[in-house]
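>> Question from a student workshop board

For tomorrow's exercise we were told to take the sequence and the ligand below, predict the bound structure, and bring the output to class. My setup keeps failing. Could a helper post the expected result so I can at least see what it should look like? The ligand is iron/sulfur cluster.
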Amino acid sequence: MDIFEKLPQALLPWYCENRRELPWRQDKEPYHIWLSEIMLQQTRVEAVKGYYSRFLAALPTVEDLANCDDDALHKLWEGLGYYSRVRNLKKAAQVIVAAGKFPTEYADVLALPGVGEYTAGAICSIAFDMPTPAVDGNVLRVISRLTEEETPIDQLSYKASVRQKLMEIYPAQAGDFTQALMELGATVCGPNRKPDCESCPCKEFCGSALNGTAEKFPVRLPKRAKREVEMTVFILNCDGEFALQKRGKTGLLADLWQFPNVPGKLETEQALAAVVAMGLRPKNVIRCVERSHIFTHIIWQIRGYYLEVDAPTGDFTWMTRQQIEADAALPTAFRQFFE
Ligand code: SF4
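>> Workshop helper replied:
Here is what the output should look like for this input. Compare the format with yours to find the bug.
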């Protein structure tokens, strides 16, 4: 029996006893599973819990999501980042509503906007008990440790081969098996720390545990350095109202709100001149702070100037802090200047 064939028997009883109670594990409603999987991409479980509950309280059905106003939708996602995820959720909801029901075939789920192989596999196995593996970085790490695989896990052909091998051994309890693998990769065999092999249900047949090699795996391709972009952000305050503007309809943080900004890091005199060029009259520079924000491929190096201006002019929307909190989705890259 190879290592893959041993997995269902080892993982299913372990998952039954050790699974964490999470809000999206309370039912098998495809909308709930889909939403949680999209939220969990690039985001920690603890951070997702509150967003998930608020989102479903505001938009309890796929129809509600399909009809939700974009600004309200961005507000529900504010702080989660990767905003294209929520825009695709809405597009996919519109496809589902037009079709009259949530798709139940893997190919149709995979065809929804924003749904890749991992998410389609998770939805179909968890909601419909189909033998469709959901292979992400966590699962690849576990498999590479179990098999002491020297191939870098970020090589696409490796991911495809793991998916194929898992598909061949999927048990009837497909949803539990998918979640068991995810759970192992998120807990005892988690990232960025020594695996807890003593507590692992696979320790008797895991190559890394038997040979003491867990810290060698997974092997990865060398990372490409992120591009650094410098910018200056203006937090312009006129009697308690702040100048905001909408970002463009495409590109990074599309259609969200931002503080006015210009490329490059400006010195104080240059910053004051830039504010005048925006049609405003600066009174005081109150503070200047340096922050950064990391995206997938870019790092913004940001200098922020806090200025008072004498009138709410210029091509801006002026909002109080309370109005921003209530209505405007302000991404973390800019929001951090309030904190
Ligand atoms: Fe990971 Fe250790 Fe379990 Fe192997 S035995 S899968 S290395 S936790």
